[in-house]
Amino acid sequence: MKKKLLSTVLAAATCVSMLAGCGSSDGAGTDKGADNTAENTAENTAEAEGGEALSASDIKIGVIYIGDENEGYTAAHMEGIDQMQAALGISDDQIIEKTLVPEDESCTDAAEDMVDQGCNIIFATSFGHESYLMQVAAEYPEIQFCHATGYQAASSGLSNFHNYFDNIYEARYVSGVVAGLKLNEMIADGKITEDAAKVGYVGAYPYAEVVSGFTSFYLGVTSVCPSATMEVQYTNSWADMTAEGEVATSLIADGCVLMSQHADTTGAPTACESAGVPCVGYNVDMTTVAPTCALTSATNNWGVYYTYAVQAVLNGEAMPTDWTAGYNDGAVAITALNDTAVAEGTADKVAEVEKALADGTLHVFDTSKFTVGGKSLEDAIAEGGDYAKYADYVSDGYFHESELASAPAFDIIIDGITSNAK
What pLDDT, on the 0 to 100 scale, is given for residue 21? Predict the structure, then answer.
């Protein structure tokens, strides 16, 4: 199937979905989060055995999508597949794609059909697909199966089943720096006071992936605007344009002067544009719906993984059980800065922060930069209780997000952030 480019899809649609946390669309599946501790560390870093090498003309690839090209989350993965195809010289007839596959036995059927059609590697892109894909992987050990955003590969006992994600929290941190600089400009211009630098955040579900994202965003904000606070409200849906707009409007009414989100539609930016409130989006350039208010968006480049995984199969090389990458590999980024909306000097600061993330001199979850209940995370862990489960994640002064497993694990509500999660 020949796909539209993501930019074309977004330009054509007025209600464009963005990249979600890949959770179950009904909210039934939760991130493993901090329960996925270091007991599986060796398995998480282990590599499966490689197979026989293939020529580029012989490989067949299957991709299972929960949506289609009109939905931003799926469109982003499709764009990644396009990048892989161009990089490796794969023809259209070597790729089997199935769209609008629900998170139920339909995924099993889709995967088995791809096996029957001779696929050597099969990808599934939504959280709720994982258990179904894993069942098929157990039946066909000679085929590689890769699942985005999941956590069960390390404990599955299957050498041909893999989880992949990227360090989107790094891009969220950078987008937070952009937002913090905007708050500073608003303070300097007398539009708000320092103690009124309150940020709103439209979240989908209170899963680790969402919490990790809004925490990294907030830490980016406070790295340049330390007086900032943040309020998070959830829609309990990955994609509900009306609800996202309503939550954004509610946050604005509650005194939030800047907005960000982890939700699938343009609902929040549209509400921000109407209210004249600066906003930071997710995965796509939101200037199409918020031309005067959208600052930038955190975004993913799935093509990095798809190219790597398919090349590994071509080479007969082993793949890691868990894979993740960030700025150092070009797997995450922010969209183009909206020069008409961002604060002066933003581009230079972004370049500085991105370099520090790429070379490892900056750690997003530096524990000296936040507290929990007025204490350092290390002290909270030492006292035991609910924080003891994070002990394996914290060393060398920071929380090692996505290092024990590819899926996000940081689900702590830090000081400065309030949340309506039940």
Answer: 40
